[in-house]
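Bug #77: duplicate submission created two jobs. Keeping one. Sequence:
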Amino acid sequence: MPLPLETSLTYFRSDVPAGQSGAWVVEKVVIPERDYDSATDPRPDCFKLRPGLYTCLRHGSTQFMTDLYDEWWTQRSAIQQALSRGGDVLITGLGLALVAEAILREPGSSVSRVTIIEKSADVIRLVAPYLEERHPGKVEVIEADAFVWKPTAGCHFTVGWHDIWPDPHSEQVTQEIAQLREHYRPWCDWQGSWPEDYLEACGGESVAARS
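Kept job's structure:
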């Protein structure tokens, strides 16, 4: 039975510094105030306009991740499962490390360690030093292909969270989620993915990916 999502979890914005490595860029983006009536916006509340300064990770012109409110909202199941289960957590896809940081920054968190599998050395160079400095001894970032990497003997994770896609609507996502679930099934008690939670939040309708 799925655990209820905690409404007390606190949204936060990323402090990963701006930078560039290869074609990968972390940049700060301002969403300005404008004439906007949220009551007339038909989208679910989490997708509605919230002006402010945000952080974006992109590869060339393709946006892979932001710290917009909907990005945090559609990953709450991973955060809640990790906080409820504790122990060691596995995440495929580093991105801006929102889920890892949300898990580790929570007061009284019983998560002992977060292992993150990231294919891009450039993303690791941009984001991992920040995360490791904030949470020393609690994070291991491994440069590897999530579809190939296997944990060492005796390794076990209470939670496995998969978030390697910039677009939850792309044709290969469903198949790749199934592949990752099957690949990590022997090592994970519970698994989830961002595309599934994103599509559930928007009722299965097309909402601009990664806002």
